[in-house]
């Protein structure tokens, strides 16, 4: 029995997809692919920002009052949101206080040393 390598399997899948041989299954393929992609992205976020890690909001943050703010990762919400409990109250018009975690997009956070 011959076993396909990952690369061989990918080439077979691409061929079947590009030649229309999977057209009757496209909805299922799309659903499964999207689900798997969400799972992979969530795992990547959790590996990049483990619970308890120290983070700092970088210059990509749209709200200037959060840039440079430091805190600790307390959890996750969805595939790209990291919950951060900040060390100090944040300013701005909403007057966020440090007692509750805020939802922050992973790309605007940088890991920092203790």
Describe this structure in words.
By secondary structure, the chain is an alpha+beta fold. The protein folds into 2 domains: 6-47, no CATH class; 49-111, SH3 type barrels (Roll), CATH 2.30.30. It has helices at residues 6-18, 26-48; strands spanning 54-57, 70-77, 81-86, 102-105, 109-111. Strands 4-3-2-1-5 form a 5-stranded antiparallel β-sheet, covered by helices on one side. Strand 2 (70-77) and strand 3 (81-86) form a beta hairpin. The model has no long low-confidence stretch (mean pLDDT 83).
List the helices and strands and how they pair.
Blueprint: H1 6-18, H2 26-48, E1 54-57, E2 70-77, E3 81-86, E4 102-105, E5 109-111
Average pLDDT confidence is 83
Q: SSE order in H/E notation?
A: HHEEEEE
Helix content: 25-40%
Largest sheet: 5 strands, antiparallel
Strand segment tally: 5
The best one-word shape is elongated
- Count, helices: 2
CATH architecture of the largest domain: Roll
Contiguous low-pLDDT stretches (5 residues minimum) are none
Strand content: 15-25%
Q: What is the CA-atom radius of gyration, in angstroms?
A: 21 Å
